[in-house]
Design brief:
The protein has 447 residues and is an alpha/beta fold. Strand 1 and strand 2 (39-44) form a beta hairpin. The protein contains 22 helices and 10 strands. The chain has helices at residues 3-17, 20-26, 47-56, 58-69, 94-99, 127-138, 158-172, 183-195, 199-207, 224-239, 260-266, 279-292, 299-308, 313-330, 336-347, 349-353, 357-368, 372-376, 382-398, 403-409, 415-431, 433-446; strands spanning 31-35, 39-44, 74-79, 105-106, 111-112, 148-151, 178-182, 211-215, 243-248, 270-273.
Amino acid sequence: MSNTENWNNSLNIIKGELSSQAYQTWFESINMVSVDSDEITIEVPNRFHYEWLDSKYQNVIKQALKATFKKSLNIKYSVIINTEPETTNIQNTASAISELIPKKFHRASQLNRRYTFKNFVEGRGNQFAKAAASSVADSPGQTPFNPLLIYSTPGLGKTHLLQAIGNHILQNSKDTRVVYVTSEKFMLDFISSIQNNKSTDFAKSYRNNDVLLLDDVQFFQTKEQTQEQFFHLFNDLFQQGKQIVLTTDRHPNELTQLKQRLVSRFQSGLIVDIQPPDLETRMAILMNKSKNENLDIPYEVTEFIASSIKADIRSMEGALVKLLALASLKKEDITVDLSKKVIEDIIGEAALSQVSMTQITSEVSKTYKVTTKQLMGKTRKMEVVNARHISMFLCREMTSSSLLSIGKFFGNRDHSTVIHACKMIEEKIAADNSFAKDIKNIKNQLT
């Protein structure tokens, strides 16, 4: 069997060990460069990629290579050289920071050109929403997804997808009339039209568009006249086959102060949600932002920020901007310690000090050389069971999660399984000083 076939088989083994998102993020963009008697060279897109593979997936890669090449191979990484000019040092980041600020709007549509599908990082929590948005952008008004409504808690990318639809349409059809507007701006325009006796002009200005992108519909709650005006606009656009895309911060059924007939219109199309991204997707988002802005952010800082801020992408990216500004003003290097100061200001010291179950399983996996997928799975190998019990014990000790939540996290196990695991580890700690020391070391690493 050729080296190329062995490499492809290795990737298939790795694919079976990981979630589809983890595999897509970290393995689809790597290539085998060469293989000699005891070493394989793997090409990766950037230094972040190399450091992540080396720290998180080294054992998985080595085991897969050994299974297919029938021998142990040392892994050497080759980073693709970026021929574009790089930022020379952190003291010169002032101009780079300004690049993080949105620029270049489509004036007529009020779209920000920086919001595109290309720079939207896809993960397990937003795949369906992105697919629906792409479909609408390719054929506005021609799909069953009219209206398309995207909902999620703030900061997960609704506005990005909404504007990406508009930018994609304008890129492919410059004559298509697209308008992006927030619900608040829509209401203010409506009020202004009443004050200036220009209600007809207001209605005409919105009805003359081919695509309406309306952000934060929940703002219409309690605004009865605005709801009435939008209801008629919605009906008129829909009857003409014009595309309507909406976002809200919750499912329409939970918008209790919206008129039922408006909610009913929203439900006549497709409703999709965006879930908070997992750690690897958050890492990919930060890496993507750093790459786009030509910034050199240390891998450990990227991981720290992504691990600390879990439920709000906007806050996570804001932390990165603030970190760059602080490093520039203080003329300091970007480090984890400096990152901690920034994160504390954003989420508070108490929240920062909390350890997550994901962090615990990651640390235990690294210490005992098993994969997190094995910890969540059903394998009864002694070394995996031991690591799983330790992880459950530490989750009970170091997080505020209930026994039920811990059991669910570990592959939907019963809470009695967690109790048994904790009891086993407690007895082992009491009987074995060396084991107790190992547990203490893991705790120290986590804190």
